[in-house]
Design brief:
Helix content is 64%, strand content 0%. By secondary structure, the chain is mostly helical. The radius of gyration is 45 Å and the shape is extended.
Length: 1181
């Protein structure tokens, strides 16, 4: 932006004074410097301040005094006096108008038709019109920038180009942006100013009057900038503007340079800022330019290295320009190189002999203080030539050779310099292009051989450059070029061995080895060259701490991908190795979850959580990539279930929950993986229970546990359980003490607590003991659920001597969750233990679903692949997919069977034990009970409950305070959750049916059972008569419980179905169907009185059909039909007759005729139903 070269910019001194609001320094400014800052100072003096302190009042007086003698202040005050609200409304209307017109500049609301040019109009206008003119012009430029799609343009605007009015236009611009910030965001204004002449000058004034926006404006310009700024005019103007901003605020120049590297935009700006940077204290060793460029090219960030290398390559393709930042950088580097060169003879002078050259005094050695800087320059030129592709000019090559062949002092740094020079010669032999230069290199190599021993002894190093010369000679002799390359790269530092970062955390900033390894893993460099990286990643994961470094999770993800996915299809074995199970177990050895007082693990909680994240992510990725692995015929090993059982997953998640702020996104990522792979560890009930365990009240209770409180051993607890009920008080004291312990401290008592559960099922055990045990079990469930569940299931097995007890493991219970219900039958009447059983059952049903899903994914694709190979050429095109579909259907059928079986068993538990239960459909008593088939051995439930009732501990079955009622409530609560989670379970169970006696309990106790209204019509359409009967009975209870419009429509459908069946059923089936369903009509009429007419008509029709079959047998049938017709037409007269005995007469007749003809019994059942309907309506009224 050379057009603004003659303009005065804001000085760093003035900007710092504005930034700090230093009134004394502002007063010291000259009039031209102060003129640039007037918009902000005038607003500061006129606007009401937020700071009401006395010191600011004094400063404000000084500002007013400072402004009093400046003539331009009056025009700025006039600008601030306009109605900016009305101005903003007009501006927004103009924006809408331009948007509708497609961006054309035809009609304007802000500015009417101009009589003269824009500059003359601005000169002759009042303050408001000046604001409108500038605002209209600025909005037009901003709209054009927004519509340009990144294409550069330069807008010709005489308002921003006229040198006479630049200061006044700048005042207007600053006032507009300050008063209309929502209409004119400062970043958008800055972008627009880049497209006009003198834009960098306007931009600096704008930022100087809003100094707090400096970083925001710079970041916005960098983000919107080009990746290569010297490729276009727009990039060069943007770089120049940012350079001017940094010259105005030099303290932020390095921060702006860091933004450039972070965004990988405007590389020329980063170099320019480095060239402009003047450090407070000069570093004689390495210059800022060498340090900056070396860091970009030799750093670990591959993206940055590629970005800057492209800047070097592209810059060389253009003609040499003195204004080019690249040529400025090269010139500065050359100057630094020449400045440290020793005085030497010209390489063009001939030398008669090596001895004469060596004895010549023309060579003066490299000065010791310049050796380190010379080494840094050599490494930088190696990186520029080897990585960025820099082609040195003749002058640069000549001076580089002079530096390489200089002779340093015999110090360790000197030895390092000679090694670097030798390796640079091997890496870039094209530097030697003339015979004179070749002769110079021969002389230098001869000097190296001669002086090697002296350097080794004088420098005090174990190995000098002689060993390197010998190695290179051997490698050249045996043609081992790869070994030479390795040696050169390691010496130049362009290929290094990466060490792990100790105690890696987010507090360690900058480029770290983990960034390098991450990029190499992404590019599959390790697998392509068969380099094992597993050990490095494992060691780095073990060396982590909080707060979590943000690169760790991406590193694990890309590492897992490199394990499962080969680098190329041609080489499917090119994968990394996974972490071994033994290494994983080492991390969790001695962790807290193994025992409350065990030795703490030497690995941090961060390491344990990261390893857990790795395992879960690996297993998930293994399942999701099964198809691709099958096609490649690869089957990576999955981690064993034994390993997973030894990892305290729930304990680690609980620990992570309290460290969410320090762990970043690790906690949420673990929860996502758990919900997918271990849903039984993410149950809502567990989270609610954890709140109760870790809440304020438990904390206050644990505060009562002082250090000198008596502690009980596991043996003492076990002995107390063995002597129950006589040891009841002592056992309660122990259990109350355990309730004060934390979940981790309670872990050692888990075996004693679970192993003694069966002893609490006796008749004389106080209720408080199992209740307290239930609380302790729930606390343990928050830290060790899986092991606790297995121990509990084994402890609650039936204690019958004739049966051999089986010890179950975790895998057994996931394969068959119904094992949980094969417990001692006395558990079914012990609510605290039943609550535990239901909790485990729910968990194992969820675990079984996840287990079968993963098993299906693990095996289905390999089976399909093998079948595809074996049937190649024999089957049809879609044949290989058939087994997968079948397996999926079988899996769903198995899960549905498990869930429905569990529900049926739980429903049967709800039945009173004194009743003789029938089959699931209630159709007869011959079918063996499903619950009895599931139980391992019969248990004395009746005797147990009788004993308890004899002791006065419980109410009889069916009472409101009985154990049965409490168990029923617990079961209904679980069934409610199951029906909500999967409504298909409710549909399947009700299509199977269950005893009619349970319908009042299920309808009243399971709130979600109302969903049955959706499929009752389908159930009524089933051909089995039993299912139709069950549907009508269920519907009658639902109508009473949920008197909804939907219930009314379904009830009307049921009455219609009953009327239809009347016409098709045989005499025997008619009796079997209508005897149990006619009483349901009473509930229909009670819930929905409008159904009375349809129900009465149906009852009369049924009565007529029955009467026609028995008219020859019973004389009372015809009068019965007459009575039914009378009841249908005038039911109120029967009610108002006052003879209550008539209402019960048909029932007595039916009882007397119990052995009579079925049709006769049905006729009297019809009349009894009529009377019940009438009686119900009478009570309702």
């Amino acid at each position: 932006m050379s057009e603004s070269a003659g303009l005065q910019f804001v000085s760093p001194y003035a900007f710092e004074a504005m930034q700090k609001v230093d009134v004394v320094r502002l007063a010291a400014l000259s009039d031209p410097e102060l003129r640039l800052l007037l918009p902000c100072l005038v607003r500061m003096a006129l606007c009401a301040p937020a700071d009401q302190s006395q010191s600011w009042a004094q400063d404000k007086k000084l500002i007013l005094r400072l402004l009093s003698g400046v003539e331009a202040v009056n025009s700025i005050v006039a600008l601030l006096s306009v109605d900016f609200h009305a101005l903003e409304q007009d501006a927004r209307k103009e924006q809408q108008l331009r948007h509708k017109a497609g961006g054309s500049n035809g009609e304007s609301i802000l500015v009417s038709q101009l009589q003269h040019g824009l500059t003359l109009e601005f000169e002759h206008s009042d303050p408001l019109r000046r604001l409108r003119l500038a605002l209209s012009e600025l909005l037009a430029i901003m709209n054009k920038v927004a519509d340009s799609n990144g294409e550069w343009f330069l807008k010709s605007s005489e308002l921003f180009e006229s040198p006479v009015y630049l200061e006044e236009v700048a005042d207007v611009l600053c006032i507009l942006q300050a008063e209309l910030p929502s209409l004119l965001p400062i970043i958008d204004v800055a972008e627009a100013l880049l497209h006009v002449r003198n834009g960098d000058w306007f931009l600096c004034l704008l930022v100087a009057n809003v100094p707090d926006s400096f970083n925001e404006v710079c970041r916005g310009l960098i983000k919107n900038g080009e990746r290569q700024d010297e490729e276009s005019m727009g990039g060069r103007r943007r770089t120049e503007a940012l350079r001017q901003l940094c010259q105005m605020n030099p303290s932020q120049a390095l921060n702006i340079r860091a933004m450039v590297v972070e965004e990988c935009h405007l590389p020329g700006l980063g170099v320019a800022l480095t060239l402009d940077y003047k450090p407070d204290t000069a570093d004689d060793a390495v210059s800022p330019l060498v340090s900056y460029v070396s860091g970009l090219l030799l750093g670990t960030n591959g993206k940055v290295r590629t970005w800057f290398s492209m800047f070097i390559r592209n810059g060389q393709q253009r003609k040499r320009e003195s204004s080019s930042v690249l040529w400025q950088m090269r010139r500065q580097l050359l100057l630094e190189l020449v400045a440290i060169l020793p005085r030497s003879r010209s390489t063009h002078e001939p030398n008669d002999s090596v001895e004469d050259a060596e004895s010549s005094s023309g060579y003066s050695g490299l000065r010791e203080e310049h050796v380190v800087k010379a080494s840094a320059l050599l490494r930088l030129y190696c990186a520029l030539m080897g990585i960025a592709g820099l082609r040195p000019t003749d002058e640069e090559a000549e001076q580089l050779l002079q530096l390489m062949t200089s002779r340093p002092p015999a110090t360790p740094a000197g030895v390092r310099f000679v090694s670097l020079s030798f390796c640079k010669l091997l890496a870039f032999p094209t530097l030697v292009s003339t015979p004179e230069q070749e002769q110079l290199m021969v002389m230098w190599l001869s000097w190296m051989i001669k002086e090697e021993e002296y350097f080794e002894s004088a420098a005090g190093v174990a190995a000098s450059f002689g060993e390197m010369l010998l190695l290179v000679a051997m490698y050249f002799h045996s043609n081992q070029l790869s070994a030479i390359i390795e040696l050169v790269c390691s010496t130049l530092g362009m290929k290094v061995r990466v060490a792990v970062t100790n105690n890696l955390s987010a507090n360690i900033t900058g480029f770290l080895p983990i960034h390098c390894i991450y990029q190499l893993l992404r590019s599959r460099a390790f697998t392509k060259h068969k380099v094992s990286i597993k050990d490095w990643i494992y060691r780095q994961l073990c060396e982590t701490s909080t707060p979590l470094h943000t690169q760790l999770l991406p590193l694990i993800d890309v590492y897992i991908n490199s394990i499962l996915t080969p680098a190329s299809k041609a080489n499917p074995e090119a994968t990394n190795q996974p972490i071994t199970e033994q290494e994983i177990l080492t991390v969790y050895q001695g962790s807290t979850a193994g025992g409350g007082r065990a030795v703490r693990s030497r690995y941090s909680i961060t390491t344990q959580l990261l390893i857990l994240y790795y395992i879960l992510s690996y297993e998930e990725a293994l399942l999701s990539n099964t198809k691709q692995l099958a096609l490649m015929q690869r089957k990576p090993k999955s981690y064993s279930a034994i390993l997973m059982d030894q990892i305290p997953i729930k304990y680690l998640i609980t620990q992570a929950q309290g460290l969410q702020q320090e762990l970043g996104g690790l906690h949420s990522a673990l929860l996502r993986l758990l919900a997918t792979n271990y849903p039984h560890l993410c149950m809502v009930e567990d989270w609610v229970c954890e709140e109760e365990v870790t809440g304020t009240l438990p904390l206050l209770r644990r505060m009562l546990l002082t250090s000198n409180t008596c502690r009980y051993s596991q043996t003492q607890l076990h002995d107390a359980f063995q002597k129950v009920p006589s040891s009841g008080p002592r056992l309660m004291r122990m259990l109350d003490h355990l309730t004060l312990l934390s979940a981790g401290d309670l872990i050692p008592y888990a075996e004693a607590l679970t192993g003694s559960m069966g002893l609490l099922l006796g008749p004389s055990v106080p209720r408080r003991i199992p209740q307290t045990l239930n609380k302790l079990w729930m606390v343990l469930n928050t830290v060790m659920p899986r092991r606790l569940w297995v121990m509990t299931v084994n402890a609650l097995q039936p204690s019958v001597k004739m049966l051999r007890q089986q010890r179950y493991i975790q895998n057994d219970l996931m394969v068959d969750p119904l094992i949980v219900l094969r417990c001692d039958q006395r558990v079914y009447r012990c609510p605290p233990l039943m609550d535990i059983v239901l909790h485990m059952l729910n968990g194992y049903l969820l675990a079984s679903k996840a287990y079968l899903n993963s098993h299906l994914k693990e095996t289905a694709d390999f089976d399909r692949q093998s079948q595809t190979i074996s049937n190649l050429g024999l089957g049809q095109a879609g044949q290989p997919d058939t087994p997968e579909v079948t397996r999926e259907e079988l899996k769903n059928a198995l899960l549905a069977a498990q869930d429905s079986a569990a529900v049926q068993i739980l429903l049967e538990v709800c039945l009173p034990t004194s009743e003789v239960q029938t089959g699931p459909l209630g159709a007869g008593g011959d079918a063996e009970s499903l619950l009895q088939s599931m139980r391992a051995a019969p248990g004395p439930i009746k005797q147990e409950e009788g004993a308890r009732r004899a002791e006065g501990e419980g109410e009889p079955d069916g009472g409101l305070l009985s154990d049965l009622r409490e168990v029923q409530c617990l079961i209904c609560c679980l069934l409610h959750q199951m029906f909500i989670a999967d409504p298909n379970i409710a549909k399947l169970v009700h299509f199977q049916g269950y005893p009619q006696a349970l319908l009042p309990l299920t309808v009243a106790g399971i709130p979600s059972i109302h969903i049955c209204l959706d499929f009752i019509p389908e159930l009524l359409a089933q051909p089995q008569l039993e299912k139709q009967i069950f549907a009508i009975q269920l519907l009658s209870h639902l109508c009473t419980q949920y008197a909804l419009p939907k219930s009314l429509s379904v009830a009307r459908l049921a009455v219609s179905v009953m009327a239809t069946l009347l016409t098709v059923l045989t005499r025997a089936k008619r009796f079997s169907f209508f005897m149990p369903t006619l009483p349901c009509l009473v509930a229909f009429c009670q819930a929905f009185p409008p159904l009375y007419d349809d129900v009465a008509t149906l009852l009369v029709q049924v009565g007529q059909v029955c009467a026609s079959d028995v008219s020859t047998k019973t004389r009372d049938i015809d009068p019965l039909i007459t009575r039914l017709q009378y009841l249908k037409v005038k039911p109120q007269e029967v009610v108002s007759g006052g003879d209550k005995s008539k209402l019960s007469l048909p029932q007595r007749a039916a009882e007397e005729l119990g052995g009579a003809d079925p049709d006769v019994q049905l006729c009297y059942r019809i009349e009894a139903t009529f009377m019940d309907i009438i009686s119900t309506s009478q009570h309702g009224l």
